[in-house]
Amino acid sequence: MNLGRPFPTNSKISRKGHDALDVLLFDQFGNYVIQTMLDIAVEAKEKKRVGNDSWFKRLAERIIKSQHKLIRYSSGKKILEKLSAAVSDDKDIIQDENFDPALKSLIVPKKFR
């Protein structure tokens, strides 16, 4: 089953360098869409849902890229918390050689969430 690539390299980008994902990350209602996408990507990564597990990594990379802006908004913090929970619950991902070290600094101990 081919579910496509999460972020095609030929995606349309605005004149300001923003694509649809950037808009959704910072939109009041788009934020919910991103949270749902992240939930689905986590389920696909954990094989609880049929899908391409590369969605999680690519979505996580885009969230990390915008984390300094996201942290300023309560809706952005929700996205970062979801990502942090997904990463901290997965012991294998931290040991993966392809794991982005930027994610490790995002992991917040559960007692502080």
UniProtKB/TrEMBL annotation:
Record-linked Gene3D superfamilies: Leucine-rich Repeat Variant
Coiled-coil stretches noted in the UniProt entry, renumbered to this chain: none
Matching SUPFAM superfamilies: ARM repeat
Residues in PUM-HD domain copies: 1-87
Keywords per UniProt: Repeat
Keyword Membrane attached: no
Repeat positions for Pumilio: 12-52
One Gene Ontology molecular-function label: RNA binding
InterPro entries the record matches: ARM-like (IPR011989), ARM-type_fold (IPR016024), PUM-HD (IPR033133), Pumilio_RNA-bd_rpt (IPR001313)
Name recorded for this polypeptide: Pumilio-family RNA binding repeat containing protein
Upper lineage: Eukaryota, Metazoa, Ecdysozoa, Nematoda, Chromadorea
